[in-house]
Amino acid sequence: xxxxxxxxxxxxxxxxxxxxxxxxxxxxxxxxxxxxxxxxxxxxxxxxxxxxxxxxxxxxxxxxxxxxxxxxxxxxxxxxxxxxxxxxxxxxxxxxxxxxxxxxxxxxxxxxxxxxxxxxxxxxxxxxxxxxxxxxxxxxxxxxxxxxxxxxxxxxxxxxxxxxxxxxxxxxxxxxxxxxxxxxxxxxxxxxxxxxxxxxxxxxxxxxxxxxxxxxxxxxxxxxxxxxxxxxxxxx
Length: 236
Description:
By secondary structure, the protein is of the alpha/beta class. 42% of the residues lie in helices and 17% in strands. The chain has helices at residues 9-27, 35-42, 46-54, 68-78, 94-100, 104-107, 138-144, 156-168, 195-210, 215-220, and strands at 32-33, 66-67, 85-90, 110-117, 126-127, 130-134, 149-152, 173-176, 189-192, 222-223, 226-227. The strands form three sheets. The chain has a seven-stranded mixed sheet with strand order 5-6-4-3-7-8-9, sandwiched between helices. Strands 1-2 form a two-stranded antiparallel sheet. Strands 10-11 form a two-stranded antiparallel sheet. Helix 8 links the parallel strand 7 (149-152) and strand 8 (173-176). It is globular.
């Protein structure tokens, strides 16, 4: 891959999907797959798949398709998943604890090493073997331990200051669940996760598919609080 070539964000956003689907194929003992077959599984055109992968060298062979294990390994390298990443969680509430308890992180090489919080009831406890420290200890920890990513699950009122402090202490990656835009130096990368945005997108699609702006139909098509797909008129 040409190091000077700019890869579009859309292609980068699809790489984890390729990686996940290829992993599923490996678990099913499938050794090779064509772009057409992969297209049917991923709901992406075969042409788009070839274009995406050509950004990184192609990896396919005419008349053969893709070697699943090889392509999986190469995308793993492209994503940087061939090494371990040390992470901390700032905010030990329900969401922070849920992330610590998510065992698939380790399978991808993401290792949560510590949790930080200001709540005295949480400080000193362990979550799946990971200790919760007082936030006052965070500066010393970050300066004396490798931290690749800080996961921010704290209130938005605290997130901006904490993010600035972490950037000042040398953390270069932040996974932000705090529902606030962070102003950090250009050399610090932030990935924002807005759970409610995703939910609202889903609700828009539900309303568009089922209700079409008719309030009477909206009420009629609810059963136990859930949408019921309208029945198609049957032919006589």
